[in-house]
Design goal:
- The protein contains 20 helices and no strands.
- By secondary structure, the protein is mainly α.
- 53% of the residues are buried.
- The protein has 2 domains: 194 residues, MFS general substrate transporter like domains (Growth Hormone, Chain: A), CATH 1.20.1250; 190 residues, MFS general substrate transporter like domains (Growth Hormone, Chain: A, Up-down Bundle), CATH 1.20.1250.
- Helix 3 crosses helix 4 and helix 15 runs parallel beside helix 17.
- The longest helix has 30 residues.
């Protein structure tokens, strides 16, 4: 125990595995592979693409409405059992989709998905990491985000093979069962409310920082702005805007295959670009997380914004040059990757950890609203102009704005509570 008090408890890394279980497993196995089910469902029931995908727009809207309530519940009650319950409900609702025959049933699934996502999508991981890590917070959040890309990279082709061999219903059943069992079991076994509940210190405390572990832990947990102070600070509204701009820029990822297939690059280049972005995003989540820890999330936001803007610009001007297009997509992957790391780290490094969950829940609400609006905005731009050009310019502007605004959040936020 004495060694744990000096260095911080290594159980924090078990908490990270639990975070991967309740966050990366459902998003990686089910959420990020949703596209492979759209066409077979449309073909079987004769639905339009809107019928088959409307639930994807319903989900972030419901999550946006419920995220503030989810933040309060996670703060007030033991997140271990809350996240076990949301993992169970999400997994079983996904399982039920295999037996749906009406579009409205998928829309109800979108409501359930959104309600569960309000807990596990943007709030729970940074909340648990901030409780359990004094150092390496950004790296831990980056690892949890990277796990989504790794899981989805394996499950997408496996799921597609199951659909081809056994039908989409069987594939849905198998994937949902795997998601439910892994997420529920690991979350129940490993997740714990706080280091204090186990009598240990967060990871990263050192002998030089504290002679009294319990007093140091209590001091760390009480550091930060109150919700009332945050609401009076312009930094909170900058944080909301940056979170929204990040997700809107990342959402352009879905337009890349269509852009390539309708131009000189071709459909094959567009399909491979998806892989390039995923690889760039995977590397980016580790790198951006490390930058958050070493240099601050404002610097990480600046770098992510610049790389995202340069990447999109290169892709836009690439013409038929596939190599330049791929380089651009790799750089865009870094901007894409920062969505899950930089906004929560800006919140914790700016406003402190005392009321992190309640404060970041407000930013996550706006993030979900932007996520719901982004596909419609990009679709309208193309429908009205007949070109992806204005959308590319918009995304470049979004990432430039992210780079600039990220630098202002932390110093502005600290003014509202640090004297």
């Amino acid at each position: 125990m004495e060694n744990q008090k000096v260095k911080g408890s290594s159980y924090a890394w078990a908490i990270l595995i639990a975070c991967i279980a309740f966050y990366a497993v459902p998003v990686g196995i089910i959420g990020n592979t949703a596209g492979i089910f759209v066409t077979p469902v449309m073909n079987e029931f004769g639905w339009t693409r809107t019928d088959a995908t409307l639930y994807m727009s319903i989900q972030p809207l419901v999550a946006a409405i419920l995220t503030p309530f989810a933040g309060r519940i996670i703060t007030k009650y033991n997140p271990r059992w809350i996240l076990v319950l949301t993992s169970l409900v999400y997994g079983l609702s996904s399982f039920a989709c295999a037996y749906f025959t009406q579009a409205w049933q998928w829309d109800i699934y979108g409501v359930i998905y959104g309600a569960c996502a309000a807990f596990f999508m943007y709030i729970a991981v940074p909340t648990m990491v901030n409780r359990w890590y004094r150092k390496n917070n950004g790296l831990a959040i980056g690892i949890a985000g990277a796990a989504i890309s790794i899981i989805a990279a394996f499950m997408s082709p496996i799921g597609q093979a199951w659909i081809t061999a056994y039908g989409w219903q069987t594939a849905r059943i198998w994937m949902s069962l795997a998601c439910t069992v892994i997420s529920v079991v690991l979350t129940a076994l490993l997740l714990r409310e706080s280091p204090e509940s186990m009598g240990v210190l967060p990871w990263g405390y050192s002998e030089e920082e504290t002679d009294d572990g319990k007093n140091a832990q209590a001091a760390a947990q009480s550091e930060g702005a109150t919700v009332a102070q945050a609401r009076k600070s312009p930094a909170l509204y900058l944080l909301m805007l940056v979170a929204g701009l990040f997700v809107m820029g990342a959402s352009f990822f879905q337009q890349i295959p269509s852009f390539a297939s309708t131009g000189a690059l071709g459909a094959a280049a567009g399909a491979f670009a998806v892989t390039i972005v995923m690889i760039g995003g995977l590397v980016g989540k580790f790198v951006i997380g490390w930058f958050c820890d070493q240099f601050g999330s404002n610097i990480a936001g600046l770098i992510a914004g610049i790389l995202g803007a340069v990447g999109i610009a290169l892709s836009f001007i690439s013409g038929g040059n596939v190599m330049i297009f791929y380089i651009g997509m790799a750089l865009f992957g870094f901007g894409y990757s920062a969505l899950s790391t930089v906004p929560p780290m800006l919140a914790s490094q700016g406003f402190g950890t005392a009321n992190f969950t309640a404060i970041y829940a407000m930013a996550a609400t706006v993030l979900n609203l932007f996520a719901a609006a982004a596909p419609l905005i990009y679709a309208q731009i193309y429908d009205r102009t007949g070109s992806f050009g204005p959308a590319f310019i918009l995304v470049i502007v979004l990432y430039v704005a992210v780079a600039v605004l990220s630098m202002a959040i932390i110093p502005t936020a600290r003014k509202c509570w640090k004297k």
